[in-house]
Amino acid sequence: MDQFLIQHTFKEVQDSLKDIQSKRKRTHFYQKITWGITGIYLVGMLIILASSYLPGTDLPFGDILAKAQPSANNPYAQVLPFAGLMVLIYFSTSFFIQAFQKFKTQEMKTMANMVDKLFPGLEFTQGASAPKKEIQSSKLFSSLKSETSVYNFGQMRSRSKGLEFNLADIGILENDLSNKASGTLMRIPVLNMGLVLYQYVFKNLVSKKPEESLPYSFRGMFCWLKFQKKLDGHTVVFSRNQGVKLDRWSSFKFREEQEIYLEDPRFTENFIVYGTDQVEARYVLSTALMERILELKEKFDRPIFLSFQNKQMYLAVKNENGLFAFPSGNLERIQVLEELVKEIETALGMKADLRL
Prior knowledge:
Elements: H1 3-53, H2 62-67, H3 79-118, E1 122-125, H4 132-138, E2 149-158, E3 165-173, H5 177-185, H6 191-206, E4 218-226, E5 234-239, H7 242-250, E6 258-260, H8 265-270, E7 271-275, H9 278-284, H10 287-300, E8 304-309, E9 312-318, H11 335-348, H12 350-354
Antiparallel strand pairs: 1-2, 2-3, 3-4, 4-9, 5-7, 5-8, 6-7, 8-9
Helix pairs in contact: 1-3, 1-6
């Protein structure tokens, strides 16, 4: 892309980026206060529970706990402090929600303005329904069900009939092995409070950006486009990860699949392949295509997943921050735009790179 266009766009949105930076800091401040108070509340509850079950044990702040025990003179000894904390949580949460909404509104407007100026040949929409049909058709997400929550944070599509291209920034809340384990722990008394302390309180306190507190099983880019070869089955390619094997194995949806063993050692070191047909998978993943997939992974420099079936190709690229959301750190720099352009141009060039 022309560097002049990037510089011109940066000058136009520079004030907005500065405003977003300010709103994000304010939101982050309220986030830490909210979760800090919540953490104190939960820790206090845990200590009181422990003092009830372990009366003969020396616990931290034992004298204070003894005075906080209900008595005839003070039957509300435990109720009043926690009621006060609940009031503080209510007000801090209200401030946080208001600040978060203002921050997100400004972020969405600025992002839409940037994308429209940098990619005038593409249609960009926000607030559209998630492309759930395409996500399910890709067979890339083992635990995806009809009731699974899928979020769409922005979608691009080509206006030219010569290039069929769709790109979305999505978030998926699959009930995968990780979320299943968390769900099991949430049903166990005391342990569920410990999990909440870690999953929500601790993570939000140490986070460097405002969080929506949703445990996405996948957040990032999802693309789909036409593939020249007509296929009877499907072939899926994952960046090599032991979790992929476990999720695939634990799912009952892909029993017809088998692991595909390919001869290219560099490819098999980076990727694991599943398919319904060994011969068809080798037909799809030619030596030249495997090399180009490796190059594509290097360009994105993050885990990528691909799926080939019925003249359609799907690509998913993990991005914990999200494609159409601003990264943490200083936003008042042109590199913010350059990184966004690189991501989108790499996706746009995928058809040519893979020679599909």
